[in-house]
Amino acid sequence: MMHQTSSKLLRMTDDDRPYTRDFKDLFATLMVSLPLTAHRVRFSRYEHTFTTEEAITNLGSLKFSQSNRMPDPRDTSRIVTTTTTTTFSMAREMARNTLGRMLEARFIESVDGRTDFSSRNSVWQLTPKGMHILARFCQRNGIHQRHVNELLDSPRNIMQLVILERDPETDAISHDQATIDVIFRRFAGDTGPNLKSMSTASDSDSMNDYATGLVGVKMQRSRRADKDAPYVFTGKAAFDWLMDCSTTVAKREVFDLANLFIQSGFIEPVGDERHGSSNGAAPRFAASKTQLYAVTQKGMRVAGWITSPNGTVNGEATVAQRAPQGAVRDSNVNRMTIIIRDPALRLLFREYLRETHCEENLAFYVEVKAFLNEYQRAKRGSSPPRPDVIRETLASAYSLYNAFLAPGSPCELNIDHNLRNALAGRMTRAVGEDEQMIQSLDEVAVLFDQAQNSVFKLMASDSVPKFSREPKYASILRERNLESMLAATSIS
């Protein structure tokens, strides 16, 4: 049996917040560890819930194991099991603070109106957002525990989050203009405004308003019948949508995005705040039930509600008519390169892959990129690299292998047979100590780099042409001028 253990230290950002991916993994690991049974609050019974005390106790010592059984490539009569175990542990006060962060991120909610974790017996449940994050974690790691499946099979698990792209180094949400355009299109509602009656649009504290994540922020028609800005919404509704329907994890991130909408000219305050402060500064977003915001003409164009004459994206058929087959294939590789580098296109491409059940390809590509960066840092850190750092990096490799590459893994990828065998041979071989461990990591990194290239080519040849032709994304691709970017890449 191959067994790789990793004690997880939560990486913290410059503003003292856990890195989002680690934080989501911690949340999902906690949820899997909890019994999630029914609890009574007053006269109501709530299924799939947990108490403050249960959560704090489990956060004190969390363990998550990921295993794969496969034939030994050198002796098929033997079965080799590779297991990665990740542990989290924290003191009670830290656990309480961590639960507070999960509440702020809207992964969980109180069933009895609590806003903190001071009471041991308070009862909590996962939000639709929390269930979506848990479902992705379980899918990646092949978790099929009965109590988790029952929760994820519940009618509340219908959220389709906007997966925000983040900088791998700082964990900051990508906020280039193109990405803000894409996020705003989802926020406003790419099929048109989500109109509600005056009473329901202006004031609601329900997290179920956006249970699916597929509609835009709740809006109402402007009372002033403003032709340039006929649709308005409250600051509170905007805050709720950005927190409930995307992978934001802190209030500050929501305010940053909303302020970028204002700065981009997509929305503007209605009333006294419209022209900014007395010193000429742009108005700041307020998450208030009484502050109304209007979608501007520019915002309506970006949302796709009104036509926006722009460049065109040539479909593959057009390209094929004027270029030999090899050139088309090369152009798809170039398109894939552009998509990987462009956060806005990557966000859209990820959505497309999710819809076509191929998201694991992009997930693997991105995770291997992070692993290879981690590997390079480990090699550069000291000479020779510290054994604990090498061991941690190897644990990441085994986690990736067990999720994406091992035979029968939950997100098993379609890669070259010889490469798969080479990976199996390396990953099932014993890992030595110190120098041998470094050599093992070097060999693993080379193989993962090859697997990443293989998956890149697969996406370029199979998914990119279909994505480029997909009507749902055509208008956005036109506005992003993908073909112009492609031409520039070809020239350079």
CATH class of the largest domain: Mainly Alpha
Give the overall average pLDDT.
83
What would you say the CATH architecture of the largest domain is?
Orthogonal Bundle
Uncertain runs are: 310-328
Number of strands: 12
What structural class results from the helix and strand content? alpha+beta
**Rounded Rg:** 24 Å
Percentage of β-strand residues: 5-15%
CATH level-3 fold name of the largest domain = Regulator of G-protein Signalling 4, domain 2
Cα distance spanning the termini:
50 Å
* CATH superfamily caption of the largest domain: Regulator of G-protein Signalling 4, domain 2
Helix content: 40-55%
Largest sheet: 5 strands, mixed
Strand order of the biggest β-sheet:
8-9-10-12-11
Number of helices, where a helix is a run of at least 4 consecutive DSSP H or I residues: 19
Shape: globular
Could you say how many structural domains there are in total? Answer: 3
How would you sum up this structure, described in words?
Residues 335-477 form the RGS domain. This is RGS domain-containing protein. It comes from Pseudocercospora musae. This protein is of the alpha+beta class. It has three domains: 12-153, Winged helix-like DNA-binding domain superfamily/Winged helix DNA-binding domain (Arc Repressor Mutant, subunit A, Orthogonal Bundle), CATH 1.10.10.10; 177-196 and 208-273 and 282-303, Winged helix-like DNA-binding domain superfamily/Winged helix DNA-binding domain (Arc Repressor Mutant, subunit A); 332-490, Regulator of G-protein Signalling 4, domain 2 (Orthogonal Bundle). Helices cover 50% and strands 14% of the residues. The strands form three sheets. It has a five-stranded mixed β-sheet with strand order 8-9-10-12-11. Helix 8 packs across helix 9. The chain is globular. It starts with a strand and ends with a helix. Mean pLDDT is 83; it is low at 310-328.
